[in-house]
Amino acid sequence: xxxxxxxxxxxxxxxxxxxxxxxxxxxxxxxxxxxxxxxxxxxxxxxxxxxxxxxxxxxxxxxxxxxxxxxxxxxxxxxxxxxxxxxxxxxxxxxxxxxxxxxxxxxxxxxxxxxxxxxxxxxxxxxxxxxxxxxxxxxxxxxxxxxxxxxxxxxxxxxxxxxxxxxxxxxxxxxxxxxxxxxxxxxxxxxxxxxx
Length: 196
What we know:
- Helix content is 58%, strand content 12%.
- The model has no long low-confidence stretch (mean pLDDT 89).
- The longest helix is centred in the middle third of the chain and has 17 residues, at 117-133.
- The chain has one domain (2-27, 74-195): Rossmann fold.
- With 196 residues, the chain is of the alpha/beta class.
- The relative contact order is 0.18.
- The protein starts with a strand and ends with a helix.
- It has a five-stranded parallel β-sheet with strand order 2-3-1-4-5, sandwiched between helices.
């Protein structure tokens, strides 16, 4: 099962990804982690990325797709994977489709966690307060103002992916505001229909 989870920051993608990983025994592939690993391993694409990052520039879509292409060849991704943080834009989604097609692969599903933005801002503020109350460090982006900036960036860049994947018949939507276990149950149902 090859999956993408969509939804704005704080929608619960990390929580649901962890549960899918456990249930299906497939890896969650974070582009940030893959990028750092490729640079550390000094793979050809990692060396390209290292040069770009050393100049303080953003890594191109071509490099990110190359890193994903290398990573999905690993034995643990043979049965599938969940992409985390990629694609972020429609051009990245198109590049991903071309790369997968070139390997004789395709995505099985794109699951979008639909959320209420105002409730999401409240959820993030609550998460920050609970973290602080436990005496743990609060993530820098877990304050309402920083979160609103991330949310605006998501709406501008990533939200158009919903229509892109809907047009390809891959998009499944579920209520990301439901209790965590209810979201998990719904995601499992969606995945069963896609694998049937």
